Amino acid sequence: MTRNPLILAFLAMTLLLGGCSNRSIGNKIDDQFLEPKVAGQIQTAHADLTSPTSHIVVTSYNGVILLAGQTPRPELRDQAEVAARRVVGVKKVHNEIQVQAPSSGMARTNDALLTTRIKTRMLASTGVPFADIKVVTENGIVYLLGLVTREEANQATAAIQKVSGVQRIVRLFQYTD
């Protein structure tokens, strides 16, 4: 069986970038399982949290949970946070859910494109630990999670500020210094 050199190069690059992180493979796997557990708890907390009137994004980095998106009522925002805190393995919850109508499909597409531009900028910037920073964009607001030094956080923020379309940057880093 012949292996495609392009596939092998992609696999090698993925392993190389994955190995450049401050987190262990175990932490990464834990986060991958934590996100759906938290999302599931939120779904069972209230039916309106999964209805078309709400759009909730759950992100985990090193056991720290980011809740972003929109919901129509403040009590739903609070219920989502309480549900997230109940999940075993959650160290901290940042509740950034906005009380408003859910973002449109076009806004979500723009957010995905903005995230791609941000990651490209970070990758091209020296001093920014690309592999240690998770970028989440919701309604033009950029959330940054990761294990970094304060200097690395400042360099990442400076790089991202140059990307057009960024409405606001919210730093949710865990500092290593």
From TrEMBL:
Transmembrane region(s): none
Keyword Signal attributed: yes
Annotated keywords: Signal
SMART domains attached to this UniProt entry: BON (SM00749)
Pfam families named in the record: BON
PROSITE patterns for this protein: BON, PROKAR_LIPOPROTEIN
Domain of life: Bacteria
InterPro entries referenced in this protein's UniProt entry, alphabetically: BON_dom, Lipoprotein_DolP, Transpt-assoc_nodulatn_dom_bac
Residue span, BON domain: 30-101, 110-177
Protein name per its UniProtKB record: BON domain-containing protein
Source organism (scientific name): Serpens gallinarum
